[in-house]
Amino acid sequence: MPYCEVGVHQSAPSAAASSAVVPVDSPINNEIKLFYQTYGRGPTKVLLIIGLAATHEAWGPQIDAFTGTTIPNDDVSSGDDNECGEGIEVCAFDNRGVGRSSVPVQKSEYSTTIMAKDAIALLDHLGWKKAHVFGHSMGAMIACKVAALVPDRVLSLALLNATGGGFQCFPKLDRRTFSVAFRFLKAKTPEQRAAVDLDTHYSQEYLDEYVGTEKRRAILYQQYVKCISSSGMQSSSGFDGQMHACWTHSVTQPDIDAMKSGGFLVSVIHGRHDIIAQIDHAKRLAERLHPIARMVDLHGGHLVSHERPEEVNQALFDLIKAAGENKSPHDWTNLSTNQSWLKENRMLFLRTIQGGSSVSFKFSLIEKLYLCLLYLFGILVLAFENGRKLLRSLKPVRVGCSPSYVNVNSS
């Protein structure tokens, strides 16, 4: 089985990122091992970083599109590497805390920066000097940190269903989302968990479509139950650690500056019906990355890479092609150059905070407190309406490795 021991093959960050982030060669637990698989062969290298509670198999539709197979290279004859011709080689891996990778017990061993260093160690292990780096959800947060740590090693960056972390991890506050969260807490069986995951990761319209004589929801439900039953449950320490990484994640202005200095293009891809990572946060992140970013807004939910695989894959191919053609950022971006007064001044405040401006620091603090109060008010309203039922039913539940990441598109 292919494993990479992280912390062994570390490289220093570029000068652009050295003042913005923790050095890549800082200590990492040398006993942590990452399980990975490579697919396809060719000179174009793509690193895929998956999200919370999911394993590398979640990238199935993209791996198949890039390489024409979902059979790992370990399971086929080596043949011609085709390094000088055409073709794409993909690497997908299990993050620490899930799947066949090591599961640290302490929350302090999980952060998006630490997990980005894991990914960089894997690049070193593979001997890849540069790669296209694509991430989904929490994986997109990790991908941002990879791009900020070593921008000189990133050929392009794709952020699928991403947020800026922290309070942006709050799901959309409405009755449907509260119902999903309530059912998630109550789920004790594969059947209950599968039903919740469907509503969490897909748009209702997609689930209600007919595939032949059956609704897609019924077909996916059976696949999910089978996957949950066979894959087992993610450990509590792994889930808690990965959640900790999401809550403590932040894309700082030095991170943004480091990414902009890398000379690569960015594609921010999002499902507009995502109830986990709200699209407004993704648009805000894309605007911060202007002019190197393009916003791709698709009709889908959180798992848009499965719900709309053709459109997502085309957006990724477009990004790889644009990077190969050295397309200029201004020819790539589809974002307006006319930012509002608030956005312009917010960027100015963020920059001056780094320089120690007390006025901008107070403004930023007030802004964050205001957002927190809005969320707290929404939570209190929902809690008041549903408190009695929740208190009677709330019990600790072990959370499993996300079964939602299966190749779910039936034709």
Topology at a glance:
Blueprint: E1 3-5, H1 15-18, E2 33-39, E3 44-49, H2 60-67, E4 88-93, H3 112-126, E5 131-136, H4 138-149, E6 154-160, H5 175-186, H6 190-201, H7 204-207, E7 210-211, E8 214-215, H8 216-231, H9 236-247, H10 253-261, E9 265-271, H11 279-288, E10 293-298, H12 304-307, H13 309-324, H14 329-332, H15 341-354, H16 358-393
Parallel strand pairs: 3-4, 3-5, 5-6, 6-9, 9-10
Antiparallel strand pairs: 1-2, 2-4, 7-8
Helix pairs in contact: 2-13, 3-4, 4-10, 5-6, 6-8, 15-16
In short:
This is AB hydrolase-1 domain-containing protein. Helices cover about 45% and strands about 15% of the residues. The protein is of the alpha/beta class and about 400 residues long.
Low-confidence stretches: 8-29, 349-363
Question: Structural class of the helices, strands and pairings?
Answer: alpha/beta
Helix content: 40-55%
CATH topology of one domain: Rossmann fold
Question: What's the N-to-C terminus distance?
Answer: 33 Å
Strand content is 5-15%
Question: Please, could you describe this protein's structure?
Answer:
By secondary structure, the chain is an alpha/beta fold. The protein has a domain at 30-169 and 233-334: Alpha/Beta hydrolase fold, catalytic domain (Rossmann fold, 3-Layer(aba) Sandwich), CATH 3.40.50.1820. Helix content is 46%, strand content 13%. It is globular and about 50 Å long.
Distinctive features:
single chain, 411 residues, alpha/beta, Rossmann fold, eight-stranded mixed β-sheet, two-stranded antiparallel sheet, 16 helices, 10 strands, 46% helix, 13% strand
